[in-house]
Amino acid sequence: MRTTKLVTDLVSESARTYLLSDSEPQTENRIAQYGPPPAGEPDSSRIASRDFEGRIDLRRLELSSKARAALADGRASLERKEAEAAIAEFERAVAAAPGTLEPLLLLAQAHKLVGEPAAAEQALRAALEVDRTFATTHLQLATLLFERGDGQAAKESLAQALAYHPDFKPGLALASRIRQREGLVEPQRVKPYRIFLEVDELGVVRAGTGTTSGARMYAGCRAIMRYELELRAALFDQPEDAPYFLSAAEEMFCVESAIGAYVAERAISREARRELPQDETAEGLTALAHTEGLLGYIMFEILGNQRPEVARKAPGFVHRAMVAYVKRHILGYEPSSEYERNFVEWFGPGDSEKSTALLSSAPVVQ
Question: Domain 46-182, CATH 1.25.40.10 — does that match?
Answer without folding.
Answer: yes
